[in-house]
Records
---
Amino acid sequence: MKAGSNLEKVLSAGHFAVTGELGPPQGNNAEEVRHKAGFLKGIVESVNITDNQTAVVRMASWAACKILIDEGLEPNYQMVCRDRNRLALMADILGATALGIKNVLCLSGDHQRFGSHPESKNVYDLDSVQLLAAFKKMRDEKKFLNDKDLDGSPDLFLGAASNPFADPFEFRVSRLAKKIAAGADFVQTQCIYNMDKFRLFMKQAVDRGLHEKCYILAGVTPMKSVGMAKYMAKFVPGMDVPESVVKRLQGVDKKQQAAEGIKMAIEQIEEFKEMEGVAGVHVMAIEWEHRAKEIIEGAGLLPRPVVD
Amino acid sequence: MIVGDSKPLEEILSMIEGREKVLVLGCRGCVTVCNVGGEKEVGILASALRIARKKAGLPPTVEEMTLERQCDPEYVEELADVADKYDAIVSIACGVGPQFVAERFQKVPVFPGINTTFIGGALEHGVWAERCQSCGNCLVHNFGGLCPIARCSKSLMNGPCGGSASGNCEISPEVPCVWDQIVQKMSAMGRLEELEQVWPNKNWLTARDGGPRKRVREDLKQ
Ligand code: SF4
Ligand code: SF4
């Protein structure tokens, strides 16, 4: 056990894991975090708390993580390299682990250019691979990046993201391999709509044995409407939404589109359960936390296993 | 070379407002090559200032001069006899020019007439692109000769990130993703697997992060 988090326990016991996601508010409204957390309690192993997601300023991820812990849920602390240098990143992880946070997801972060403060100065002192390596060093060697000893050690279950749909495709599995080599214990993928491409990606990952070195969780985001599908297809970088997905949603009555989106997510999860190398799903129902249960229950994943 | 952009005329006019005698000072270095600060541009800017100031009923005295380089004290010294005659010097060299002139001549106010933008090169006539951030420890040979520090929007050494799409960077379809180009170049050279190496955190001490830099070449000093 690296950190003994609930997520780590469930995965290492061989269960098909489920993680959720929660975006903190654009303000300091703790009640909103509690409210959203209520929908996810008991239906996922742990909940990703986004970190200034899409470069929009929000309540600090570690703080929302702490609220979650107080509510009896387990957080995955997302950290982006965009906003802090290595001093701040290491300081924050020490603080976060002192508060009881055990899972961390290391990301480079969306560029600030299209966020809420495009004029800001970015940092990118470390990249996501280097951040994984830094935290692995702090955990395994009890040392800072400068090789000096640290007092105590942050027990961490280290996560990374992987986007099988970004370009160049021929390097996507290599990039995953790099993250694993740097220290990733688990990986959550970008939301998947192009199943053919994802199958190809997983086959390449399995051929290299990457699924044996790290738990791979497939990303699922239900489509709420045709509008959302079209928007994602067109404007979200690195997102691959095939025409067939848009068509299927168009094929149903407007009022039925959300239900159809959820049905599609459930079908996907059924397929992931059978797919070699997939250790679980990461259900990202951002601003739709209240519908996560329908999906997870619909896919036959409730109740969640209890592992001691 | 160092690439620059002319400041808008209105901005320069408001900088020198209330100054009687003005010198527009050009440079024959980089800014001549990128057509913003050489002798020709000195002429254009000076006459535009004259016309505008005359129209506004202000003193139109605007004189012209172009140095071989403004980043070299021996050329800046050519101003020794004339600098004091002016109430304002508008330097259209890169940012080094106004500073060298200001440091050498204590009493004359110096104004930048251009915005210094980046170290880059010409892609075609009239088009320049950034290529280097002078990080002080060049690594491009490891990345197919292309620089991920200056040319990746996130300076990723272990890229490409998840936002790379169709050869473009996530920030804009107008910005090429250099990591896409790095992968292609390394692949063409049959060296793709080299990119699987995990690059450790970079030492930025040699970059601007280590404080303002200075280079001493004892062999060249007199
Ligand atoms: S590695 Fe550093 S010195 Fe070399 S091109 Fe890039 S920024 Fe410039
Ligand atoms: S898309 Fe490419 S250039 Fe842009 S930040 Fe990502 S890796 Fe860097």
---
Amino acid sequence: MNPLALTDTPVASPHAHGGGSVGRTMRRVQLALVPATLFGFWLYGWPAFFLWSATIAACLGWEALCLRLAGARAVRATLWDGSAALTGWLLAMTLPPWAPWWIAVVGGFVAIVIGKQVFGGLGQNVFNPAMVARVALLVSFPVPMTTWVQPLSVMHAAAPDLLEGLRIFLGLHPVPDAITSATLLGHAKTELARGVDLFAVMGQGGDLVSWTGLRPGSLGESSTLLLAGGGLFLLLGGLISWQVPVAVLAGLAVPAGIAHAIDPGHYLAPEVHLLSGAAMLGAFFIATDYVSSPNTRAGQLIFGFAIGVLAWIIRSFGGYPEGVGFSVLLMNAMTPIIDRYVKPRILGRDRRGRPLDIPAREAS
Amino acid sequence: MTEITAPHPSGLTLPAIVLSADGEDAWGPLTPCDDPFALDPDEIARRVLDAGIVGLGGAAFPSAVKLGGARKAGVHTLIINGGECEPYLSCDDRQMRDDAAQIVDGIVLMLRATGAGTARVGIEDNKPEAIAAMRAAAAVQPAVQVCPVPARYPMGSEKQLIGVLTGIEMPADGRPADIGVVVHNVGTARAVRAAVVEGKPLIARLVTLNGNCMKAPGNIEVRLGTLAEAVIAFAGGLKGEGVGLARRVLGGPMMGQQMPHWRVPVVKGTSGILALDADEVAAQAPDPCIRCGSCVQACPAGLLPLEMSARIRNDALAEAVDIGLKDCIACGCCAFVCPSRIPLVQYFVHAKGELAAQERARLRTDATRKLAEQKRERVERDKREKAEAAARRKAEREAREAAARPAATPAEGVSA
Ligand code: SF4
Ligand code: SF4
């Protein structure tokens, strides 16, 4: 044996790399969230900023704790790969902007510990951690999770200043009744339940629907336009494929359009569905989660469309005004099945894996 | 006799002889051919065989065998692979620019040897000079068409190139000859011409020197057997005496093989000598798979690299085969794009090696079992034959005794 041969461990090809990394991917997704987040801060003031920071901090804290307990070697590197921070960020985007601090802490716990680390950490989780947390919070703490505030904007005279914002965030200062309100979907739902039809609720033109997002809602869901812009950035950067978002939006819009055409008094118009709640956030940022979505293009179409349809069903017939979180979780559970049955065709084989027939040769 | 490391990542050594050059660089008696284009196909194949020509694209399959086989299979199209498969390598490009006429001659000879009617030269469209040179050289040969193909790795891979040039998707376990084509590399065409026309054996090949650590990257005609060390020294050595060298590779960056050191010979399949720095290699500990699906989108063979690697990690090799491991061409696309930098190809190469070893072991045990069975059968047969012989003897004896006895009393028989 040549002693020189042992100086290097043999490494298989390729000997070059495209340069991507997990951290880079996560950071770019976060970048895409920045405009909508800043808009959320502007809309809902200091409490929103505190909530956002606390949710991310909670997720990082729980992640660090889990990694430490699990005896991971590269705690710091894993912590800063950006995945826990992104989970926290996405969760924060779906919370009522003036929710108190403990929502952030409990949410972070559910997302990271239950939603992710229990399954084995990054890449192993079956469900989208942020959605697990969001749904768990909604089911366990319905009151703080549905206390929405009127957008005041930081400039507004009635908007809480830094100190007041901190006190609201710490729960020392209850949210004044005057500024609480319902989201568009929630409002429509309660009114429908009272027997008032949608014409009366929304006015003929549906003018409550606004692209600007100046209406009550979650921290990051209000600005449909900015979220869609961020999604476009992800698409153009090749971080997500068009299949998931387009399928989600189509899945939501198609049944909504049909139902609305048949009975506009009872079913919201498709554009209302697309422009409110977590539709855009869900389509571009949540359903596209790599870990919990199928990894073939065809599978992604099925997955996305089903999320859209389920969200529409829950919004229209279910007990909750919003359905994106639930439907994402439902379809996450279906992902392994989709991946099992929807596979790319192997080159030189038919869909069932048998070699293609040798084509007949023209006589030469 | 001396020992050198084989040009293989195993680092195994092999015996070698040392030739010392006299500096004259003169050929011995050659057997040029005056009218090479009138030779009959068998004669061309024989000269190619005598010259020791193998596919110079990297696979190093004996060319004479391929030429003869193609003729027997009755191929109609000869495909010439001018699609430099890998980034970093430019030896094929260089040859097409510099020796287009020789290559075209070689192609014409190969057409004769294979009996194919047309030749299509696939050249990636990012090599306009090579395309122009080859077009000019092929202008007088109507049977030779130069076809630009998209510059998309792994275009140099046989299946991909055939697909683009003929529009036929090769069946999974088929060979090109099944669909009437045969593929050769441009370098091989050039070597075929040298062998048939000038009678020159294959003793050298063009090698690309590249990588950030190489002082003077370029293409060099290298005599086979020259140590990579000597080639690099000839080309001016490494930058900063090799400080910052992260990986030594023979071949291209996507499919080449890492070398433990530079005392390895250039062989017929050596297309490149790369001295890569840390930035190029970007080696770092892999992160967990985030199921991003990039590898699935990147795979030109339509496979699920993440699923295959997961199965291999769990030692479920049979399952990995079920989902297509054997269709993997080890092109490296999946590992190249993986953000978690998972060494996917390493998994696949390892698994294929493991399967091959299992297969060998199975054949061995099969053979032993068969021998044991044969032995048992032989023993049984002997026993049976002995028993039969004994029975026969007994029967004969009884018959004899019966005959010797007085005739049986019929009355007895009836009453019984
Ligand atoms: S190396 Fe990767 S990309 Fe290439 S064929 Fe194999 S699995 Fe597909
Ligand atoms: S590219 Fe890498 S991280 Fe992405 S799915 Fe494939 S193996 Fe996993």
